[in-house]
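Re: [ENG-882] Designed sequences occasionally contain unexpected residues at chain ends

Forwarding the minimal case from QA. Structure tokens:
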């Protein structure tokens, strides 16, 4: 790999040949760097509606919870695998996920490499693959992101300082590395430094279980199946999601918008619409978890610890202000409501964290999902490094 030296802050006009390769990119979030992860195919419904049960003349026993299935998994299933993921070709980078052992996760729910999701999706319980080469998450090297430029013609450039390994910045903020220099020209490469890197994966699929499908409030009791969902609004949803991704027992996370005005005819709200405050939605995170590993009360306590003194502020968490940044616990069952009430009451009457029945949850745009993980922050279970909210 080419060593990168921040020896110059020169800004280059983007070569014409590279413009189409970069594209316009997703919109920037206010007060944050232009760092965006790759879009991923959504495997979840974004607009959920309550469906009334038909009347029954006689009571009938509830169906047993779904057990492990003997089939290939589909998006939304919870899969349990045993794997070892090893860097190849001299790649030395600390994985941002649990790269060995037995892990469970929602297929298509982020956290682990997309290539691992795809690999597991082709297996049946008991099947295994050995030494499968998978992309390490940075994609293949794109020739369109490599360009040769003449020396001269760039006002303010100190061409004597342009040597192989120096990092430069293009006019649109994209970083590139000088990979070759002659007397008359130099070559730049805007590919990610680890583009083309791969892992070798040994994977065995142990089980496939249906994930939670009933995501609205269940007044009578608990949720069906082994897994449950919880929804929290704690300000900017990027850092909140990463916080829960690190919790043992959490098998899936999604960021989105909830508790706003119902507007099925207008379609799901966009991030820009929510930021205006007109829709009434809050930025929130929906967490899928195994209650045998982590109890709901613990998830609520994590939420309140993250809020800290912000729990006493209205429509504000840190520097983020507005109704979309209000904080709340949105319960899916009566048991969750009771736990939420007990925890909030322990902070006194001045606590401004709201407690409401979970409403329709709309997925945020794909580039928001697992944003900080895709930006290079660790999501390993039990990870304790500080979460940087803006990259």
């Amino acid at each position: 790999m080419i060593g990168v030296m921040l020896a110059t802050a020169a800004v280059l006009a983007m070569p014409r040949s590279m413009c189409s390769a970069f594209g316009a990119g997703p919109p920037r979030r206010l007060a944050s760097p232009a760092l965006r992860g790759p879009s991923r195919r959504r495997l979840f419904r974004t607009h959920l509606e309550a469906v009334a049960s038909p009347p029954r003349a006689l009571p009938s026993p509830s169906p047993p919870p779904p057990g492990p299935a003997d089939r290939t998994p589909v998006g939304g299933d919870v899969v349990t695998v045993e794997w070892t993921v090893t860097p190849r070709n001299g790649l030395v980078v600390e994985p941002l996920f649990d790269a060995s052992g037995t892990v469970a996760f929602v297929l298509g729910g982020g956290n682990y490499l997309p290539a691992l999701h795809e690999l597991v999706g082709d297996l049946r319980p008991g099947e295994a693959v050995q030494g499968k080469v998978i992309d390490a998450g940075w994609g293949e090297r794109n020739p369109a992101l490599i360009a040769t430029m003449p020396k001269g013609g760039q006002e303010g450039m100190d061409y004597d300082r342009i040597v192989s390994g120096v990092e430069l910045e293009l006019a649109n903020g994209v970083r590139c590395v000088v990979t070759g220099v002659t007397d008359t020209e130099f070559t730049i490469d805007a590919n990610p430094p680890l583009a083309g890197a791969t892992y070798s994966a040994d994977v065995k699929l142990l089980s496939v279980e249906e994930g939670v499908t009933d995501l609205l409030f269940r007044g009578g009791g608990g949720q069906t199946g082994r897994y449950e969902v919880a929804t929290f609004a704690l300000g900017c949803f990027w850092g909140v999601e990463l916080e829960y991704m690190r919790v043992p027992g959490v098998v899936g996370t999604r960021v989105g918008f909830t508790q706003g005005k119902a507007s099925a005819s207008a379609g799901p709200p966009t991030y820009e619409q929510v930021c205006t405050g007109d829709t009434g939605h809050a930025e929130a995170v929906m967490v899928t978890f195994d209650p045998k590993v982590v109890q709901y009360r613990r998830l609520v306590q994590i939420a309140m610890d993250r809020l800290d003194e912000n729990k006493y502020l209205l429509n504000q968490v840190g520097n983020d202000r507005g109704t979309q940044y209000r904080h709340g616990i949105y319960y899916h069952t009566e048991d969750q409501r009771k736990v939420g009430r007990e925890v909030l009451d322990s902070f006194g009457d001045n606590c401004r964290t709201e407690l409401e029945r979970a409403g329709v949850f709309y997925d945020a745009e794909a580039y928001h999902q697992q944003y900080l993980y895709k930006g290079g922050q660790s999501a390993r279970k039990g990870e304790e490094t500080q979460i940087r909210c803006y990259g």
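QA comment: On inspection the terminal residues look reasonable. Residues 1-10, 24-65 have pLDDT under 50 and may be disordered. Proposing we downgrade this to a documentation issue.
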